[in-house]
Backbone:
């Protein structure tokens, strides 16, 4: 398993999907923009609204998954990662991930209490390509 190849694949995707568990123990999937920051295959950072349903779900149950895919004319590639999601509200992290244009979503700017960061820490994954799947652990 070439984990660097998977990292490069993830970096090329414009959309990701995050999975959370609701209060009835059903999985919920949400499309998100690509992560704001990635550190190897271990840590991924997303920005979101503190008031969102997803944040409440992760507060109640940090188990999470993140999925990336690309469908070409013939070839389909997918990467699913499993791990834990944390909600980060500290100003240093928010400053680090803030981008110009975010005021469109967070009217009060980088200090907006409705702006937070989701930190996903992966523990394992599954890679699909050319009708083959392969599981892998993340150290």
Residues:
């Amino acid at each position: 398993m070439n984990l660097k190849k998977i990292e490069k694949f993830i970096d090329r995707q414009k959309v990701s999907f995050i999975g959370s568990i609701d209060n009835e123990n059903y999985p919920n999937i949400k499309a998100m923009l690509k992560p704001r920051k990635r550190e190897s295959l271990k840590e991924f950072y997303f920005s979101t609204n503190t008031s969102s349903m997803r944040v409440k779900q992760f507060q109640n149950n940090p188990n999470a998954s993140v999925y990336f895919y690309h469908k070409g004319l013939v070839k389909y590639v997918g990467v699913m990662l499993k791990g834990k999601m944390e909600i980060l509200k500290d100003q240093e992290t928010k400053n680090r991930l803030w981008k110009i244009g975010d005021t469109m979503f967070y009217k009060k700017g980088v200090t907006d209490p409705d702006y937070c960061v989701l930190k996903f820490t992966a523990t394992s994954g599954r890679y699909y390509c050319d009708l083959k799947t392969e599981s892998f652990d993340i150290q």
